[in-house]
Amino acid sequence: MSASDIAQPGGFRRDHVIANLPAGDTIVPTHIQNSFLTSIGPNNLLQSTYCGFVNETLHLGDEYSQNEELIPLFSSLDTFHTETNEISTRGATVKQTVFTIFKSFIGSGILFLPKGFQNGGMLFSIVGLCVSAALSTFCMLRLVECSTVLLHAHNHHNVSYGIVGEIAFGAMGRRAVNLSLVLSQIGFCCSYLIFVEKNIGEVLLHAFNLQSSLTTSSWTLILLQIPLYTPLAWVRRLEYFALTSLFADVLIVFGLVYILTYTVKTLESAAPGESTWVYFNSENWAMFLGVAVYCFEGIGLVLPTYDSMDDQIKHKFPAILSWCVVCILAICIMFAGTVYAAFGQSTQSVVTLNLPSSSESTGTMAVQLTYSLALVLSYPLMLYPVINILESKLFPYQRVKGFWRWKKNGFRFALVCLTAVVGYFGKEELDNFVSIIGGFCSVPLAFIYPCIFHSRLVGRGHILNGVVVVIGLCTMVFATFQAVSTWN
């Protein structure tokens, strides 16, 4: 190793290991070649999925490809980014792909599922969730098949959802995908704001005895999130969120484990016949449909995940995706079913509110704070595609960088404010709000577009595609109508 290599973090360790390799062994393990910073860097997990989804796949704006906004915040990280890009060309492994898929699906959606089970009933919700998972997997594989056809027949590279739509139906296809994406991502951001407001408000109310009117405290807590999210929305490089995103995942897992543990204890101590859950809720069953789609809405990251895989293992992607969805489905059913069985008709829209008050349990306070922090750290990732899609239309490239950049910063601030306003008006009807996001915004992306594009580009499976499209349209209409008609 050269002196400059040894000077890198961990260089002495790597030099020592390489110098003591067995005689005749010329192959240096990858984990020894890489520095520690590279091993924990974005690699394929965040950059190849989110960056690929937003920049390469959506082909948005030249700001992200040729001006100084791509320059790292710290010049000392130049080597780090170069090493990362060189290593990432090898493609993601099976383990990395599995991690990315789980990361795409496990988030805030699972916390809204118990209330969804209350709206649908235990048996109907389990069956509906299984159907939603099966249809989502089917449509994701349809989209991958479209990508493969374009890759081989039309010599396209880095095929995205938007590109598939554009090749299938021209500019209108891309616009439809982008519109649905913008609406769904804004909805996710609003639900994050509401979740944080409700949990932090609960902590302040019970743990610190800060009394105020409901309207004032809710509006204040939502407004206080704006200066928190605005600097995060101003960040230009997604890879700076790599470690915070991983940390958010750890917090989410901690919260789920704690909630499930408390729920099981509640079930064990419940008196016989005390449970109030039902098999089927004839009044609000349609609202569950939107929540079920919301929970499995990760189709936007499927093609970037597939594209980031090593070419030698891409043929395994359908099996990997299917088994991951089965595992995620089992987790969702176990979590939502257990919580609903424990609390029945008292199940809250935000399941953390079913825990003991923060004044009685430090564990509850820890879960509410950590899960809120996890969603705060995840918020910029949800807003990032919206920012890029809209900025590419509103702000053509200009050479006067300073003023141009601050105009876009102002737009990003306005976008954060928009999510806060929408979140405020949706906070009292959170289960209806989530159902609208899933039914009206996510169903086209998850069920309708993939099958239509597949019929146009692949040219087979028309009957099956048509059946799924009809199911998607019915789900969209029923879920949206039920959520709107029962608002307030």
Q: In this structure, how is the largest beta sheet organized?
A: none
Portion in strands = under 5%
User: The CATH topology of the largest domain is what?
Assistant: Amino acid/polyamine transporter I
Low-confidence stretches: 30-44, 55-88
Structural class by helix and strand composition: mainly alpha
Count of domains = 2
Span between N and C termini? 69 Å
Q: Rounded to an integer, what's the Rg over CA atoms?
A: 24 Å
From N to C, what is the helix and strand string? HHHHHHHHHHHHHHHHHHHHH
Number of strands: 0
Q: Could you say which overall geometry the principal axes of the C-alpha atoms support?
A: globular
Classify the oligomer: single chain
Membrane topology: Multi-pass membrane protein
Organism: Phytophthora nicotianae P1569
Keywords: Membrane, Transmembrane, Transmembrane helix
Subcellular location: Membrane
Task: Outline the structure in words.
The protein has helices at 3-6, 11-19, 30-33, 36-40, 47-56, 63-66, 78-88, 94-105, 109-120, 122-153, 161-169, 171-206, 214-234, 242-269, 285-295, 302-308, 317-343, 362-394, 401-426, 430-457, 462-485. It is globular, with a radius of gyration of 24 Å. It folds into two domains: 1-33, no CATH class; 42-485, Up-down Bundle (Amino acid/polyamine transporter I). The protein has 488 residues and is mainly alpha-helical. The protein contains 21 helices and no strands.
